[in-house]
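For the sake of clarity, the format in which proteins appear in this thesis is described at this point. The fold follows as a row of integers, each naming the local backbone shape at the matching residue. One such record is shown here in full, so that the layout can be seen directly:
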Amino acid sequence: MEKAGLDRPDGYSISLLCRALKLSRSGYYAYLAARPAAAVTAREEDEPVAEIRQIHEESRRAYGAPRINAALGHRGRRITRKRVERLIREHDIPGITRRKRRNLTKAGTKAASSPDLIGHDFTADEPGRKLVGDITYLPT
């Protein structure tokens, strides 16, 4: 037992314990410094979770992570979207999808396909000779 540096109530110094366990003293102190931070982080997560639950209930359980994150931003709470996603996942706060996506351009089974009159050659000799168009589904 070392005489100098008896830091522990059981009478063994940190230096002796670290040498016996083949650990660095700086690693031990880094571990000690990180422990309270992890405990504080766990306590600090309770407040955002309560606010997330409140926003989720106000939206009739419809909002997911992007909208909850935006609502938190409007309330003045700075929090990243990924943290909101993690908290929602860990505390089982699911959002719902109210609308189902529909594809409106379905090929008819009885309709005959249109003939390819230009053979996929879109170059024209002069303007206005080959006019082509496309219908794209845009949700509104």
In short: The chain has five helices and no strands.
